[in-house]
Specification:
binds zinc ion, Rossmann fold, 6-stranded parallel sheet, 9 strands, 37% helix, 247 residues, binds ligand BJW, 3-stranded antiparallel sheet, SIR2/SIRT2 'Small Domain', alpha/beta, elongated
Length: 247
């Protein structure tokens, strides 16, 4: 691990800035559950019953109950050392931006200035009738919640299976990757598209890929360096190592 960490830090310094791609694993140590894996949400809930437009059409209240429960977790959660290390890497010019699949807003809460949300945010809702968007200060009490403008049905402002990711966000992610010297991938299984395609795109363009994960993933075949461990432990060490090399 020490040698791998030094190798990753050297890449980060020499090819800076890196673009970062994050997934649920970066927030696991903040108490936000991941999707897949032994403690993942999908063990207890079926995605096709909850995270699809069809599920919402069938039973908006059930879908909202699941989202309200997750909103309660997210509103209580605080950024962990992984989020904070990434924000510090941005301040030092090691990292240009974070492209995240997470909907929890914890990168922004840690002071990350550049964040591209590929799957939206659980902290916002949008109206299924007039498109009005709003940001929640706390989870809604009446379910399903109604639009303050037109009385239409509100939905979580997130991207469900079968829905396209926001075009602007995806275009931005591709442009940022093109400008970046490499890609740092943290805590994602890498199986959900199109986000999961970024590591292969980086590798095909000859850019180094650094992966941080507690276990191997669909990203690992593209990783130049694989750092096994918890993001909240590995990223602060990577930051310190890179800081030493910058000094
Ligand atoms: C740690 C750790 C610690 C733990 N430290 N690590 C091309 C090929 C094949 C399929 C498709 C394709 N294109 C589209 C599809 C279909 C589909 C898809 O990808 N399906 C696959 C599952 C096969 N994709 C879509 O439908 C997407 N839409 C799309 O592409 O549209 C195209 C289109 C165009 C035009 C018209 C119509 C359509 C949309 C995908 C939306 C995904 N939505 C969700 C829910 C968001 C809302 C919500 O939160 O409720 O997004 S699903 C869920 O998965 C969520 C996540 O963002 C996403 C990714 O999960 P993530 O982050 O990787 O989490 P996990 O749990 O999988 O992994 C956690 C990792 O962390 C693990 O590896 C752990 O080991 C690790 N870990 N603790 C470090 N402490
Ligand atoms: Zn409305």
């Amino acid at each position: 691990m020490r040698a791998e960490l030094a190798r990753a830090a050297r890449l980060l310094v020499e090819r800076r800035p890196f673009l970062v791609l994050t997934g649920a694993g970066v927030s696991a140590e903040s108490g936000v559950p991941t999707f897949r894996g032994p403690d993942g949400l999908w063990r207890r809930f079926r995605p096709e019953e909850l995270a699809t437009p069809e599920a919402f059409r069938r039973d908006p209240k059930l879908v909202w109950e699941w989202y309200r429960w997750r909103m309660e977790l997210v509103f209580r959660a605080r950024p962990n050392p992984a989020h904070r290390a990434l924000a510090e890497m941005e301040r030092l010019g090691l990292v240009s931006c974070v492209v995240t699949q997470n909907v929890d807003g914890l990168h922004q809460a840690a002071g990350q200035r550049c964040v591209v949300e590929l799957h939206g945010s659980i902290r916002r809702a949008r109206c299924t009738s007039c498109g009005h968007r709003l940001a929640w200060e706390r989870p809604p009490s009446e379910l399903p919640p109604r639009c303050p403008r037109c009385g239409g049905l509100l939905r979580p402002d997130v991207v469900w299976f079968g829905e396209p990711v926001p075009e602007g966000a995806w275009r931005r992610a591709l442009a940022l990757l093109e400008e970046a010297g490499g890609l740092l991938v943290v805590g994602t299984s890498g199986v959900v598209m199109p986000a999961g395609a970024l590591p292969a795109l980086a590798a095909a363009a000859g850019k180094p890929v650094i992966e941080v994960n507690v276990e191997e993933s669909a990203v690992t075949p593209y990783a130049t360096v694989f750092l096994r461990g918890r993001a909240g432990e590995v990223l602060p060490r990577l930051l310190e190592e890179a800081r030493r090399m910058l000094a």
